[in-house]
Task: inverse folding
């Protein structure tokens, strides 16, 4: 028989922990290029934004860097398009969200924060894993569509 | 470009973990593995597994098994992929064991609320509307039935990705699809749970080890602000979004089960005890007024030593 434990609403004390809210750098542009088109050479078509990937004089596709920016969020991502205009892959390069830096913490919850192995939440020391409300990736999907309209037909 | 965390070791994945993210399943899917030979290949294969589930079970993609079923299964049996069939079978069992709280035929209600595209023929979800036949064929018992696997497929995709990582010999890793996640390896992974009432805050931190954690709450988009919208969990009896509970998190042996049980817990609340017991799961519930309610084993359930 499952036993439930209840806590009625205590004052929502926010305990500040020194952390960037939620920021991860996954890949640099160069790393993402190498992963999307292994062994290719890259020629810049549009400064800092579009590269042509070639191997032995043969066009492999285009690599397009883009960024979504909002008040509390920015996401760098890259779309790799093959010569037929098809998306090969979409990689998130960097994700930065200004939310999630503090713990709403009745004391019973607070006791668990920081209790974990190697959980030093200092800048650059730890990468956060977050669960909670699902974030929509719709803005990235819209960006990919825009990029396909602009670059999807180039190789044909 | 600022590189916070770029070369820093994660708490559990010591050394320089390989950590990648892609927009999949309508959210951000992230795969992180401990450094190992061919880590990049393992991560790519894990994303391929997630993409495969996305391609089979997307409500939006007209080529998916789910779309084919919604078009044709009301008129006659439709053969589906073995993965889709497995998820439908799990969904049927969850429907039965949750006394109807978990119901994949709420798609027309989600459509009528604008949470899924298209206009429904009728909005009433049905119990036991999906008939599973031999040879992976599926038939709807009535025309007009529409299914959405959004309440279970993300978790299933996470489980598939974890299976692929393990097949590749990865010793420790974490797969996180928009907050539905599974962490494995010799050490526990620390997970911060967002406060469903205010996504700018964290509610608590838990550890998972060879275990899944899934959360459901109202949606918010940090591009726009910190306002939390109604959640997309529909009570099949009232056909209304759940409003009494703000959010729920479930820990379970598999992410598919954890994902599905978050919906059951949102709807059934404390009455979900028996089904949580059955699946070896524990839960944390945040009510609209801010009260918290958790199964007694919530904080101790972290370390699941068996693989």
Result:
């Amino acid at each position: 028989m499952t036993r439930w434990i209840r806590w009625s609403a205590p004052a929502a004390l926010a305990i500040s922990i020194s952390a960037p809210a939620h920021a991860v750098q996954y890949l640099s542009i160069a790393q993402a290029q190498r992963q999307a088109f292994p062994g290719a050479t890259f020629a810049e078509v549009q400064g800092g934004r579009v590269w042509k990937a070639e191997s032995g004089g043969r066009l492999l596709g285009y690599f397009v860097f883009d960024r979504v920016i909002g008040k509390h969020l920015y996401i760098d991502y890259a779309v790799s398009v093959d010569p037929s205009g098809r998306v090969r892959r979409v990689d998130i390069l960097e994700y930065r969200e200004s939310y999630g830096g503090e713990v709403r913490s009745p004391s019973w919850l607070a006791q668990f924060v920081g209790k974990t192995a190697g959980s030093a939440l200092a800048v650059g020391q730890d990468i956060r894993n977050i669960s909670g409300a699902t974030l929509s990736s719709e803005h990235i999907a819209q960006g990919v569509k825009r990029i396909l309209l602009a670059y999807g037909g180039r190789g044909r | 470009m600022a590189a916070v965390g770029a070369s820093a070791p994660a708490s559990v994945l010591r050394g320089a973990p390989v950590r990648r993210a892609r927009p999949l399943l309508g959210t951000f899917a992230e795969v992180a593995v401990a450094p190992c030979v061919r880590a990049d290949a393992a991560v790519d294969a894990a994303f391929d597994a997630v993409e495969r589930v996305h391609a089979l079970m997307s409500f939006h993609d007209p080529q998916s098994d789910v779309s084919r079923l919604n078009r044709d299964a009301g008129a006659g049996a439709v053969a589906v992929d073995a993965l889709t069939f497995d998820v439908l079978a799990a969904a049927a069992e969850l429907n039965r064991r949750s006394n109807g709280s978990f119901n994949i035929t709420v798609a027309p209600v989600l459509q009528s609320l604008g949470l899924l595209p298209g206009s429904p023929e009728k909005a009433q979800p049905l119990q036991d509307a999906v008939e599973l036949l031999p040879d992976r064929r599926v038939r709807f018992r009535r025309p007009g039935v529409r299914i959405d696997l959004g309440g279970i497929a993300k978790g299933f995709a996470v489980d598939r990705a974890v299976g692929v990582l393990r097949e590749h010999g990865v010793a420790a890793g974490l797969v996180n699809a928009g907050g539905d996640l599974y962490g494995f390896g010799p050490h526990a992974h620390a997970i911060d749970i967002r406060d469903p009432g205010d996504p700018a805050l964290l509610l608590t931190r838990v550890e998972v080890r060879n275990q899944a954690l899934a959360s459901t709450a109202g949606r918010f988009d940090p591009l726009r602000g910190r306002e939390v919208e109604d959640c997309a969990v529909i009570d099949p009896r009232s056909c209304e979004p759940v409003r009494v509970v703000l959010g729920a998190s479930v820990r379970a042996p598999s992410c598919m089960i954890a994902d599905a049980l978050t919906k059951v817990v949102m709807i059934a609340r404390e009455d979900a005890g028996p089904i949580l017991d059955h699946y070896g799961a524990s839960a944390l519930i945040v009510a609209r007024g801010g009260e918290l309610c958790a199964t007694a084993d919530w904080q101790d359930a972290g370390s699941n030593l068996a693989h």
